[in-house]
Amino acid sequence: MCEALTNSYHLLEELGRGRFGTIYRCFSPAKSAFFACKVIDKSLLSDDPADRDCLENEPKIMSLLSPHPHIVDIADAFDSPDSLSIVMELCDRRTLFDLVAHRTLSEAEACHYAKQLLSAVAHCHRLRVVHRDVKPDNVLLDSRNDLKLADFGSAIWLGEEGRATAEGVVGTPYYVAPEVLLGREYNEKVDVWSVGVILYIMVSGVPPFYGDSVEEIFEKVVRGNLRFPTKHFRGVSADVKDLLRKMICRDVHRRFSAEQALRHPWMLNEGETNSLADLT
């Protein structure tokens, strides 16, 4: 482990473990404050240069995005030949997944969380950052029950040489956009698709594209046939369905941007709607 890290922070208990590393709670005597520390073991990385690029870019991207009320703030980064350690603000262990896994949310509650998440995503996009793995597991809850977008290990910055698109199959089955799976170049709207899927799950309790295998899920995502089954959408307003159609839209040119989604009437009305709920 990096000596500069252990000289500045006391590593405490393990909070979680991922594919490439471990997250610890840590304490800074100089700042008299607790933080989270993500320690990435470079020996676990594949030989794929893209993996190593993402590793090197994560602290840079987090620094570019900080501060934002709904993005995890970075406090420090320590690089060594064997590891990369990122010290960031400490949130609760709860994630948005813990919230949506146990119940569906009211439209007002879903709007509250979706607005915070879209605010974070819109901030990323204004700075030409594409997260590429927006999912409930990567959205933390803080002590005030507000959302914090985290884990920028798959993120990419489009600022270099005025690039408008990215490439590479990155993401998680239920939440990945179809253009990613088709191997096409894609832009920041892949994140809007993912937030749309999360909103769909929040109000219905089920994902829009379900399968018994990864292959079956991918096939349904690529087909992009969005439905609102009565069993799960009875009583859900036409307004939120309209927003979902515009976020989970297979045609990238017609798909909303994060800013457009934030300006949708359902969002502006805090999830309250003047239209009748769909009872059929």
UniProtKB/TrEMBL annotation:
Span of the signal peptide: none
Keyword presence, Protein biosynthesis: no
A molecular-function term among this protein's GO annotations: ATP binding
Domain of life: Eukaryota
Domain Protein kinase, first and last residues per copy: 9-267
Ligand binding (ATP): 38
SUPFAM superfamilies: Protein kinase-like (PK-like) (SSF56112)
Keyword annotations of the record: ATP-binding, Kinase, Nucleotide-binding, Serine/threonine-protein kinase, Transferase
Function of the protein: CIPK serine-threonine protein kinases interact with CBL proteins. Binding of a CBL protein to the regulatory NAF domain of CIPK protein lead to the activation of the kinase in a calcium-dependent manner.
PANTHER family, per database record: SERINE/THREONINE-PROTEIN KINASE (PTHR24349)
Family membership noted in the UniProt record: Belongs to the protein kinase superfamily. CAMK Ser/Thr protein kinase family. SNF1 subfamily.
Stated name of the protein: Phosphoenolpyruvate carboxylase kinase 2
Organism: Rhodamnia argentea
Gene name as annotated: LOC115734144
